[in-house]
């Protein structure tokens, strides 16, 4: 669907994107994650043909974005960080204008415009001037523009920047719905946003791709061991005997329990061996009630900090992610 090969962008002595290569498959939501200044927006601009690379190739459905830009761009819908909207047009007028730019046949325009406005949830403001809309609605109009022509790939660059918590949640839900019929690439430096909507994550740092996988696999790859917390209505001796001989367990220790007759075990095992079924089975065989069993995996935050060496994440989370969390709780 989309292949990036040795993509590089230099500005004099500064290398914004450094020999970047990856493939995007259809039917998934990809998160392009990295700190501010990592090269995310520059990469998005080169993929969409807005910016020429210093070196490298971008292939979209087999078409080179530089050699066959018209054919390549038919497969892409793009929402830049600042949507290029005409503020003195109504939403309907603007999308009609976009349809003409994308050479949508006249007979198909009315139905497509209505469908796109419904999907982007801007039908209720179709006849309002864009300049009078809220920031959230302007972002939705930008997404509606990206959807015109039903492209295979939707690229969204920081789509929730500057939105209030309610608008952030609404845009995230919209992105999830887009993933049902389109391949989506979402660029962001906000961890919660990526983890909330994406099923594959690419981490970029200093213009280089430093990781590409699911959040779970990234976490597993950063550690050789896995930690499980087990709370059982039994004695520590009974738990030890029950767990004896299970392959993959490397360490067993106990924490103090506030409840009499309850053992709290911490089990360290190899990442390559899933011991959960065996542990539960041993407890069931001995009729030892399991009150709680959960794993301690590295969070996406831990993975991100290790891969990028970023020191400013906590401030970013306080200013944007916590607002979204508070709104979701309400």
Assigned CATH superfamily of the domain at 2-75 and 151-220: P-loop containing nucleotide triphosphate hydrolases
Mean pLDDT: 87
Q: Helical residue percent?
A: 25-40%
The biggest beta sheet, please?
6 strands, mixed
By CATH reckoning, the class of the domain at 2-75 and 151-220 would read Alpha Beta
Q: What does the overall shape look like?
A: elongated
CATH architecture identity of the domain at 2-75 and 151-220: 3-Layer(aba) Sandwich
The stretches of 5 or more residues where confidence is low (pLDDT under 50) are: 311-330
Beta-strand content estimate: 25-35%
Question: What is the fold's blueprint, element by element?
Answer:
Elements lengths: L1 E10 L2 E11 L4 E5 L6 H8 L7 E6 L2 E2 L4 H5 L2 E4 L11 H11 L7 H12 L14 H13 L5 E5 L7 H14 L4 E6 L2 H7 L2 E6 L2 E6 L1 H7 L3 E8 L3 H8 L5 E7 L7 E8 L5 H10 L4 E7 L3 H9 L4 H17 L1
Parallel strand pairs: 3-8, 3-9, 6-7, 7-8
Antiparallel strand pairs: 1-2, 1-4, 4-5, 9-10, 11-13, 11-14, 12-13
Walk me through this protein's architecture.
This protein is α/β, with parallel strands linked by helices and 330 residues long. Among the domains are: 2-75 and 151-220, Rossmann fold (3-Layer(aba) Sandwich), CATH 3.40.50; 224-296, ACT domain (Alpha-Beta Plaits, 2-Layer Sandwich), CATH 3.30.70.260. Helix content is 37%, strand content 28%. The chain has twelve helices and 14 strands. It has helices spanning 40-47, 69-73, 91-101, 109-120, 135-147, 165-178, 191-197, 215-221, 236-243, 276-285, 300-308, 313-329; strands at residues 2-11, 14-24, 29-33, 55-60, 63-64, 76-79, 153-157, 183-188, 200-205, 208-213, 225-232, 249-255, 263-270, 290-296. Strand 1 (2-11) and strand 2 (14-24) form a beta hairpin. The longest helix is centred in the C-terminal third of the chain and has 17 residues, at 313-329. Residues 311-330 have low confidence and may be disordered.
